[in-house]
Structure formats: C-alpha cells, structure tokens
Amino acid sequence: MFDCYLKRVIYNKRFEMTYVALSQVIVTNMSTGSRVNMKSRHGYEVKQVQVLGGERYLVGHTSPTLLLGDLASCKLSEVAWQSGGNEKFYLENENVCMIFNAGELSLVEYGVNEVLGSVRTEHMSPHLLSVRINERKHRQDQEADCKKLAYLVDLRTICIMDLSLGTVLATVPHDSIINWLELNETGRKLLFRDRRLRLHLYDVGTQSLTSLLSYCSYVQWIPQSDVVVAQNKTSLCVWYNINIPDKTTMFPLKGEVTSLERRGGRTEVMVKTGVDTVTYTLDEGLIEFGTAVDDRDYLRALSFLEGLEMSGESEAMWGTLGQLSLQDRKLKIAERCYAALGDVAKVRYLREVGKLADKMTLETGQDGTTHYLVEAKMAALNKQLKQAEAILLERGELDMVMTMYQELHRWEDAIEVAAARSHPDLATLKATHYQHLLDSGQEERAGKMKEREGDLPGAISLYMKAGLPGKAAKLISQHQELSSQPDLLRHIASSLSEGGQFEKAGELFEKAQELQQAMEAYRRAGAFRRAVELARSAYPTQVVKLEEEWGVYLCGRREYEAAIVHLIEAGRLEKAAEAAIISRQWSKAVQIVDMLQPDQAGEHYQLLASHFASTRDLPMAEKYFLRANMAQEAMDMYVRAEDWRAAHRVAVGCMPPDDIRELYVAQAGQMEREGRLGEAEQLFLLVNEPDQAISMYKKARQYDPMVHLVAQFHSDLLTETHLLLAQELEAEGAVRPAEKHFLEAGDWKSAVSMYREKGQWEDAHRVAKNGGGVSAANQVAYTWAQNLGGDSAVKLMSKFGLLETAVDYATDHFEFDFAFSIAKVALKEKVTDIHLKKALHLEDEGKFREAEESFAAAGKPKEAVLMYVHQQAWDDAQRVAELHCPESVSDVLIGQARVAFEQKNYQKAEGHLLRADRPDLVAKFYKEADMWQDALRIMKDYLPHQLDEFQKEMAAKSGTSYRDLLSQARTWEQSGEHSRAVDVYLQVTSSNCPDHDVLQDSWEKAVDLTLKFASTRSVDVVTLVSDRLAHLGRYVQAGEMFLSVEMVKEGLDMYMAGEAWDKAREIARNIAPRYVEYVEQAYVDYLREQNRPDEMQGVDPEGALRMYCEKGQWQHCLQLAEKQGAVVLEKYVALYAAHLIKTSAPLTALQLFNKYGTSPNPQNFNIYKHLCVEVFSGDWEGEGGCRTLSLLRNVLLGLVETLSHSREDRVPGSQRVPALSLCITLSHHANCVSGCAPAGWAGSQDLCESPEVHRHSAPRQSLLPGRPPLQEDGLG
C-alpha cells in the first residue's frame, strides 16, 4: 500500500501536513492521530498553512481566498480574501475568527463560507471586543440567531451590532475612556468599565444605562447565566438577577479577585490574599433560577424559590417569575408568586380569572386562557383598560364594559362608552353619577360635568363650593364673557388669596381693576414679572423696589442665576455678586465684583479666588487673593500647583526672605529626591541658590546642566569646573566625556595625555590635531612611533609623511637613538646632521670628548676646536686644530687673547694676538678697556695708516646722557675750557635728566663758572637758568640768580611768582625801596584775588573791610572797623543796618544801633526813618512787638540826646529833634499799649486814634503804611 502526495511537511514537530493535491492539505495531529482535511472548494492552490491559537486553529492562504479551520470541532471555512500579508488573527473566541487588517475588523464564523461582518475600529484588545455567537438563546429569541458584536468606535463610544442582520442595535457614548467591555451570552446586556474604574450596565433592549459600581477592580459574567460577579475594593458584589440591578448581594473579602470557575454544579470565586488563594462559593440555586427562567421552565424556577427564605433577592425573583408567568398565561404559578409577595388582591383576582378560564375550558374544550373574557380580565389586571374595552366591545358586551368601568369607579369612561354607543340609559347614568358626586361630596367632579355640559355658572358655583377657586378662575380665563362681572371676580380672587393662590388672584384683581390688591397678590405669589409689568404702567416708582424684592425672592428659592439681573436692575451689586457666586456664574460674578468698592467686595474676592484656584485659573485666583489681602493663600495655591516661579513672585510680598529661602530649598530637596531635577533647579535659582543646584546636578552626575549653571553664575570658575569634571571622569574611565570637558576647559593637552596613558593613540592624535593643529598632531604621532619602535615606527611616520619631521624633532629633543633608528632605515642622508646635532648636545652637556668624536663623525672638526676654545681648554683646542684643522690655530690664539684681556693680563693677550697676526684686535680690546694710550701705541706701531680715523673716534667718544655730559663738562673744566664747560653744563636739561636736583646743580655750576670766568655771558646765562628754574617751580632759587647779577625787578617777580611775599617785601624795603609800592600793590591784588581778608588787615584795612562786607561777614567787619576808629565804625554800622532793613530784619538793626550807638550823621537819618516805618507798620502785638518798640524808643532817645548836646552848626541834624521826639513818644505809647494788649490794644490804627497822637495830626499821617514819608516832620 502506497501514499501518494505532492509533498509532506512536519510543522512544529507536532503536525504533519500532507499536500495530496494543489488545493487539498491533510493536517494530522501526530500526538493524537486526529486528521482534518483542508480543501479549497473553489480548487485554488493552497500556498501556506499555519497552526495558531494554542495549536487548535488552522489558517491557510490561497491567492484569492482565506481558509480557516477548528481542529476541535472540524469546522472549516473559506472566504474571499485579498491578502496583503499584514493580517493579525485573534483566536480567543471558539466560534469566530477575528481578523484585523488596516483598521478594519472582519469576523468569520467557523463552518460558514462568508464573512460574518466587518467594522472599522482601531482598538483590537480582547478586553475591548465582545462577540457572542449563539452561545445561549433568550426565551424570546428561541427561533432567531444570536450573533452580536460590541466594539469601540473610539475610546469613549461603544457600538453594538447585530451580525446576522448587519444592523447597529445601539451606540453608547460615555464621558470617560473605556478600558473593558463584555456582552452577556444572549447579547441583551452589556457590561463596561471606564478608566476611572466605574462599572456600568447597558440594556440593549430598552437602551437604558445603569451605574453599578463607582469603583470596580474585577468584573465577569458567570458562564451559562446572567449573573454578574464584581469586586468593589473590599467587597464582593453579586447580581443574581441583573434585571434588578439595585438588588446586590455583597460579601466582605480580603485580597484581589483573580478568576471564577464553574464546574461540578459549583461556582467559585478565586481570591488571592498575599501568597494564598481563597475560594468563595456562590449560591448555585440563585444562579440556576435565572437559567430556568431563560429556559421558560417556570415549575423548576418555582420549586427552587419554594426552598428559599424570603429576602431581598428572593423577593425580586418571586416578582420576576410572577411577571413572566402572567405573560405566558401561567395563572396558577403567577397566583403562587403574588401570594408569596403578599399581594392578596391580585391573588384573589387571579383565582377568579383562573376559575373562569377553567370553566371556559370545560365549556369550549379549548384553552380557557385564550377566551375573550379571560383576555379582557387579564388586560384589566395589567391596567390595559382600553384593550379590555376593545376585546369586549368586539364581542358586543357593552353592558359588561360599562359594568367594568363602574366597578373601577371610572364613571366618566362608562358614560363616554354609553354615549358613543347611544345606550338608552345614558341620561339616567349621568343623573345617577351627578347625584352620587353631590352625595359623596365630590363637587369638583360635579363641576367638571357641568362644565362639559356648558353650564358655566353652575360649574363655577360647584368649584367654589368644593373650595377650588383656581378651577373657577381658570374657567373665567377660558371664557371672557364671564370677566364682565367684577363682584364675581373679586369673590373668586379673595378665595384664591385665602387659599394661597395669589398669582391667579392677582390676575382677577387686575381684571377687576383692583390694581393695589393685584400688586400685593402678585408679590405674595412671587409673580414679580407680572408685578413689575403692572408697576411700570400703574406705579413706576415701585419698579426698582420690586426688582430688588424679585431678586431676593429668587435667592430665597435658590434661583440665584435668575436673581442676578434683577438685583443689578435694583442697584444692589453686592447681593448680585453674592447670587452670581452661589449660582456659579463666575464670569458675571467677576464683572459685578469689579464694579464694587474694595471695602464691599472683600468676601467676594476670597470666594472668586477660591473658585479660580479650584478650576486651575491661577492668574485670576492670584488677582482676587491679592485684592482680598490674602497673599499667603495665593502663594499656597501656587505651591500646591507647583508653579514655584509665580509662588515666589507672590511670596516676596508676604514672607520674610529667609522663610522663602527655607521653603524653596526644602521643596527643591524633595524634588531632587524624586528625580525632578529641572524643577528643583528652578526653585534653587528663584531663591538665589545656584550653588545648591550645581551640587545637586553633580551628585546626580548630570554634568551638562551643572556646567551650564557654573557658566551662568560662576563664569570665573568655569574652566576649573571643566578640569575637575574631566579629571573625575578620567579616573572613572569615562574618557569620551572627560575629553569633552578637557576641550571645554581649553586644555586639549590633558585630553591627549589621558588618551596616551590609556594607549588610545588614534584618539590622542585626533584631539591633538583639532586642538593644537598639525604641530601638536605631529608630536603625538612622534610619541606614538616612539612607543611602537622599530619598523612599525618607520611605517607609522611614513603613513603620516613625517619621516624627516620625526628625525628633526628627535634630534631637537636629544633623542638621537630614535633619530638614528629612523634615519638608518629611511633617511641615510640625515645621519651626518644627526651626528652634528648630537655633538652640539654633548657639548652643552659637558661631554667634550664624546662631542669631539661626534663632530669628527659629522665632518666638522672646526666646531670641535671652537668648543674647546669656548671651554678654554687650550691644549685640546690646539691639538684638534693642528690634527684636523690647521686653519683654526689662529682662532685658538684669539680665544686665549680674549680670556687674557678679560683677566687684565694685557701683555699675554697682546702676545697671543700678535702671534695670530691680529694687531687690529689688540687696538680694539685696548679701546674697549679705555686704554687709549696703549691703543694709540699699537696703532702707531702696527696700524699707522688708521691713525686719523682713530683720532676722530676719540673725539666722538662722548655720549649724550646727562652723566656723560657732566663727565665731559668736568673734563673741559679740568682742561681750563670754561666756556665750553658752561655750554656742556647747559646741555643737561629736563629732557635727558629726570633728577631736578642734578639739573639745579648743573645750572648753578654753569652760572658759577660764567660769573668767575665768562662775565660777559653772565646776564644771558642767568636769564636762561632762571627761566629753567622757574619752569621747575624753583622760584626762590631763580630770584636769587637774578639778584646775583643785580636784576632786582626780575628777582622780585620770581619771588612773587613763587608766593614768597615776605622775602619779596623784605628785599624791596632793604635793597630796592623804589619797588616797595610795586610789591605792596601786587601783594594786595594777590590777597584780594585769593579772598583772604584776614591777611589783608595788616596791609589794606579798608580793602579788608570791603571784602568782609562783600562776603557778608559783618561781625568781622564791625570788629575791624571798631579798631579803625569811630568814623569808620559809624560808616559800617550804617551799611550793616541798611542791609538788615533790606532783608526785613529791623529788630536786628535796632539791636545793632543799641550796641554801637546812633550817629547824628545826616546820611543816617534815612535809615532811622525806614526803621520807624518798618516798626510802626509791623505787628506790635505780643512780646516780640513790645521788645521791638522798646528798642526803637531807646535808639531814638539816644539819638535825640546826642543831637541835644551838640550845637546845630556842628551837628546838621539838630533841627530834626522835634520829629524824633514825636517818634519817641509814639514808640513809647505803642510799647505801653502793646504791653497792655488785654486792655483793648488793636494795632496801629488804635495808636493813631490815641489823644497823644491827635495832638500831632500831621506826623501821624506819615506813620501809617501807604502814606507819604515823614518829610514834613523833618525826618525825610
């Protein structure tokens, strides 16, 4: 027996896939031997087969179709499908495969060759999809398929779809993101939970939403039932009857619910408490009840309920069973259910209906529950009276309908049916009903009958009798013809008022033109709109008051929003603001509060601030907190919101700086511990603590922000910080970050050294090239090559093109072995140069023998000779020169001669140079040693042709510095060339000599030589030297120079220019009296220019007095004038008095005259007159006025006495004595009156009216302000 197949594949070592044809694959489970034949019914080639979903489901692909299969149920499906290779298969449901591709969800039912349905969704989590495919049918859907899908359209919207019909059953919007949903097995109920862990139930049939729990951590439908299990924190909640969600069974528990299991007739909830798992067993009977009801097995449900005690859950289940039994006409079962519920009336009624049904069953032989009488009674039981009426009228049972309505006391319905059917007893029925109404006190219903019959007055009468004036008023409003009876209106309105129906009463009062009563009724009814409308037309002045009452009334009814407008209309802004705040009309509240005065809005500011703080409108909250003087609360708000910058801005105005700093530092520390370093930094900076922020970043090893802060606040430490960080990172082995900080610090050399120590030569070369350029890179490359050594070093230098550079660098740094190692391999022509440089180095090191060998190897024996010459090793130099370089022998002799000259062994030196045939050098050395005579001897003996030039050189030897000039001058002086010595001394000036003492000495020497040996030049030399000394500020010395040549005036000018006045005045008096006046006048001008009156007293007292006057130093002036005599004193006392009068200080002027006396000089009488006018026209009252008048009297009295004791021809003012006596008398009277002010003195006018003054009427007129001066009296 042979197997015939195209190919065979072993899949995951558990399945064998045998391709028996292009379109057919047999999949065999190698462990169980079960086989499934997957075949394309369209004959398409099967390209790929996969086993997915716990190795239970098959997925195969053909070009135009998709093959799906269930290995457990052997159901296969083939659907049209254009595969893009991006499909995702969800195989959690046993009945349907869900395929997600490009935002579209497709469902394929196993065993069905069509796509069950497709929807658009982006949410493919198993918790956000629920599919139910005929898992359990509801009692009402036994014939229909139950294929339903619930999915998310978006994160807040659920869509429930009937897949069999392709219609949307419901769309459920929600206010929060949904994170779990699931349909029950019948697809009639939907449970879903949102992100806030709130659990909701949606009834698909009634499309009603019920909230089950405010917090739910676990929820699940119990399989094969409609029972829900959920966890609410520490409680286990079970809904045995989900149709009554208010009936919940709750158990306390500890731990978290993990799952539930239902097997073996038990349902258990698994709860994990720490490491243990505890089970809670649910009441299986309660669970089975729901299943029995859904299966319409009412007897099983009844038998289950019979065994239960009455409780909230069992009561709800009795009610549910009773309703369902009535719907299915199970009257006996319904009777038992309502008996259990204690509904006796319904039980009795059902028993009668049951008997009727049994009777009809016996009479007709059919199901009695379908008889029309039974159906009518059941309709009446369900309060479907119209349906019962229709059933009976259809069978002609009019009397039975009327009897039914009468038994139910629905007379109006009975009369309506009788009227519709023209029953002969209609009138009797109406009369009986009317009389019954009257007898039973039902005047209202009787009134309605009268109203329907058109008897309006009778209806109103009955309504009023029944105490229903409102209905009477309504009837009047509906029939305007009744409004023409004012008495009736007032009567009804009064009754309405008594019954509290004030608004209707107000309408009737208004119709009856009782406007005041209407207004009062409207107010009492709270109908302020109508009251305001009435007031606008009848009582305009009451509108504002009514608006306020309206607003207060609305506030009392908590209709604050409506009250706002009326309170504003009434001008009660404070109450309007309060109403706006209470009604949460915050925008209106803000507008109103802003119009209030601060003292009225204090509490409102606080409420507004609290609201804006709660809504996170922090700037507005701050604004009103500050207006309410609650800066601390504003700061606390910003602290809670973690807006630290704003909090700091507010805190500056309400907290001490130390408290702010402590708060912010503590909060920053907390943020640092939480890892919120950026926010912590902001807090540190707000309180000016950048160092703590820097330390924080350093501890957190976040060096970039740390460096940024250092650059911002400690820029002077930035370089040091980079270096420290680089060193720490280098020690930790973090070379790249360390390199970065070395470079930021500008220390690229340290970065290079770091890489060199780590052996990372490429990085060292890169950093050196970037930081120090080509030269630095070459140095690193050189060190790299040294580290490699041998041929590797040559190759490396060759790679960089640095062979010659490396050799040069090695020799420059005395690394000759390395240089030779490269040169001998690649640059043999450089060997000689290396030997030469090595010889020079050895010479510097003092290794002369080795250096000599290297010079010889380099072919430079002369350099060896010079080396020995330099070292004064003359024997070695001579040896090498004679052996290798005879032409250098003379150089050796010259070197020996130079040393001898330095040792002042001139003969030996001269001998060596002459042996070397170099007399010119002998002459040169002698000249340098200032041995001109020896130099001259050599020139004469060996170089006679250069004698002329030598003589010129001796002449030009003198230098240009002041020391050279002084030396040269002394030379000329010693040589007797005094005139030339003077010229040289005068060549020493401030341009070549900074020392003024040296200059003075030089010039004085020139003057001295001139006076002694060149008197003809003395004037010119003295003039020149004096001018130079004056420029140096040495005027006294310059003056003495002039005096030495009898230039007296010029000498005096120098003394005066140097402010040596005593010297100048003494010389003028003793030597040149003709210049005394010239000097004195210059001295006076000088003192006047310097404003020094104290010194001028001894020179020009009058001038000193004038200076004191000009400076306002009157006391000094008077003291000096007093020394100059009475005449001068009188003059300056008068000047001072005139000054005081101009400055309105007559009291001081009087005191001045009182101290120094009064002069009879006629020029002073004008001053006395002005003093009198000033005093008499002033304020005489008080102690000051009395003292002033007393002084005036004494001064004038002294003046009169002086004039009286003088002869008129000697004192020109004697004729003014009468006028002065009058002034004395007036001042005396004024003084007396001023001292007696309580006796009635009232000022100058009273003085003028006194008898004494009346005797002198003419003088009196001149004493008053604004009158002619006292000329008539002789004082003018």
TrEMBL record:
UniProt GO cellular component terms: axoneme; ciliary basal body; intraciliary transport particle B
UniProt GO BP: intraciliary transport
Pfam families per UniProt: TPR_IF140-IFT172 (PF24762), TPR_IFT80_172 (PF23387)
Keyword Methyltransferase applies: no
Entry-linked SUPFAM superfamilies: TPR-like (SSF48452), Tricorn protease domain 2 (SSF69322)
Residues in IFT80/172/WDR35 TPR domain copies: 317-450
Family as reported in the entry's similarity comment: Belongs to the IFT172 family.
Record-linked InterPro entries: TPR-like_helical_dom_sf, TPR_IF140/IFT172/WDR19, TPR_IFT80_172_dom
Chief location category: other
Keyword set, alphabetical order: Cell projection, Cilium, Developmental protein, Repeat, TPR repeat, WD repeat
Origin species: Geodia barretti (Barrett's horny sponge)
The IF140/IFT172/WDR19 TPR domain, residue ranges: 723-910
Top-rank taxon: Eukaryota
Subcellular location: Cell projection, Cilium
Protein's name in the database: Intraflagellar transport protein 172 homolog
The keyword Repeat is annotated on this UniProt entry: yes
Residue ranges of the region described as Disordered: 1256-1276
